[in-house]
């Protein structure tokens, strides 16, 4: 497992971060998914993937904690957690809530420090708009009131040795620019994949400030995997047959004219899953990609996917031109709505 620098923080992160969103049931019990997920996390830790992403809202941290409680490599693990303060409908930033989420995570993960905090500002916005461009002005306005108390509580937690880097989870480019310009953050965590390349617009600004980037959902909730790349072959009832995914598949059709020649015999990747994971690390600023892993088979598939040559960096601006045009036409991300799929 290769490692990459996370900005100028001094951290070297494995290219794959183990994502725990769906690797277990939300309640303890004899669930086959949980058994497979736990085995996958154990194998990942054994293989040196010592970077784990979690959030209280996923409902799977109990299983993560059970694995870490007994694993001999527990003390080597770097944790990144998502902290939602203020959350939906909360008009102000409450430092006690921020600290409480950190302390809960430390206890549940049997950790002494959270290495990277991924801050998400929801707040008093219309949840129907979620995080897309229509809600951006309101979120940016509210960010001004969040910034000072966030900076203060984060610094206190750093002084106590409880957290390391502070990152923003911006969703939109405008919010990202505001957060980067504030000087309060060490990096950015955001969606980044073949169809969601919006954040490339702030890569140079981040480089100037020595910031790092961590990508999330490299397979775009499974759309960019071999199982779902051909929409016509999906079984009845598959969620990606819903109208909300029409725009993503329209964008994919254009992206395929650039990507298809790189997949299969004579290409740099044997499959779409492999190519999508390689692409998620196409720029040096990308320190790691968070992959939701549910089984040992998925773990080994992800590891194998990164073997061999990587995409030419020139492919990124070409695909981003498609992303930008779709965004300009519709004002929303490729999945057609502001609220992430797992929150629907």
CATH architecture: Alpha-Beta Barrel
Sequence of strands across the biggest β-sheet: 3-4-5-6-7-8-9-10
The CATH homologous superfamily corresponds to NADP-dependent oxidoreductase domain
Report the biggest beta sheet as strand number plus sense, adding barrel if it closes. Answer: 8 strands, parallel, barrel
Q: Separation of termini?
A: 34 Å
Characterise this structure:
The protein is α/β, with parallel strands linked by helices. It has one domain (about 5-344): NADP-dependent oxidoreductase domain (TIM Barrel). It is built from 10 helices and 10 strands. The chain has helices spanning about 30-45, 60-70, 95-110, 135-160, 175-180, 205-210, 245-260, 270-280, 295-305, 315-330; strands at about 5, 10-15, 15-20, 50-55, 80-85, 115-120, 165-170, 185-190, 210-215, 285-290. Strands 3-4-5-6-7-8-9-10 form an 8-stranded parallel β-barrel, surrounded by 4 helices. Strands 1-2 form a two-stranded antiparallel ribbon. Mean pLDDT is about 90; it is low at about 335-344.
How are the SSEs ordered, and which strands pair?
Layout: E1 3-5, E2 12-14, E3 16-19, H1 32-46, E4 51-54, H2 61-70, E5 78-84, H3 95-108, E6 114-120, H4 136-159, E7 163-168, H5 173-182, E8 187-191, H6 203-208, E9 212-216, H7 246-259, H8 272-279, E10 286-292, H9 296-305, H10 315-330
Parallel strand pairs: 3-4, 3-10, 4-5, 5-6, 6-7, 7-8, 8-9, 9-10
Antiparallel strand pairs: 1-2
Helix pairs in contact: 1-2, 1-9, 4-5, 7-10, 8-9
Question: Care to give the gist of this entry?
Answer:
This protein is of the alpha/beta class and 344 residues long. The protein contains ten helices and ten strands.
């Amino acid at each position: 497992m290769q490692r990459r620098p996370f900005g100028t923080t001094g951290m070297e992160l494995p290219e794959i971060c183990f994502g725990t969103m769906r690797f277990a049931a939300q309640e303890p019990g004899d669930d086959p998914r949980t058994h497979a997920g736990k085995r996958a996390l154990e194998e990942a830790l054994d293989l040196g993937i010592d970077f784990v992403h979690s959030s209280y809202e996923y409902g799977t941290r109990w299983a993560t904690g059970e694995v870490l409680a007994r694993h001999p490599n527990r003390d080597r693990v770097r944790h990144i957690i998502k902290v939602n303060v203020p959350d939906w409908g909360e008009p102000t930033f409450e430092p006690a809530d921020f600290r409480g989420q950190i302390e809960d995570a430390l206890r549940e993960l049997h950790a002494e420090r959270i290495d990277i905090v991924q801050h998400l500002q929801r707040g008093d916005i219309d949840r129907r708009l979620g995080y897309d461009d229509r809600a951006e002005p309101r979120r940016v306005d509210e960010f001004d009131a969040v910034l000072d108390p966030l900076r203060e509580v984060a610094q206190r937690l750093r002084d106590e040795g409880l957290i390391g880097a502070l990152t923003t989870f911006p969703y939109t480019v405008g919010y990202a620019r505001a957060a980067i310009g504030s000087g309060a953050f060490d990096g950015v965590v955001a969606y980044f994949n073949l169809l969601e390349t919006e954040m490339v617009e702030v890569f140079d600004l981040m480089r100037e400030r020595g910031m790092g980037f961590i990508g999330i959902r490299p397979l775009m909730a499974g759309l960019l995997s071999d199982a779902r790349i051909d929409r016509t072959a999906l079984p009845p009832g598959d969620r990606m047959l819903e109208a909300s995914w029409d725009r993503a598949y329209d964008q994919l059709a254009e992206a395929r004219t650039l990507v298809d020649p790189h997949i299969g015999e004579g290409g740099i990747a044997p499959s779409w899953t492999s190519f999508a994971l390689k692409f998620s690390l196409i720029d040096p600023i990308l320190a790691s990609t968070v992959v939701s892993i549910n089984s040992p088979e998925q773990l080994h598939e992800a590891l194998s996917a990164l073997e061999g040559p990587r995409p030419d960096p020139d492919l990124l601006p070409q695909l981003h031109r498609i992303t930008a045009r779709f965004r300009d036409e519709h004002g929303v991300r490729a999945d057609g709505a502001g609220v992430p799929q797992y929150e629907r």
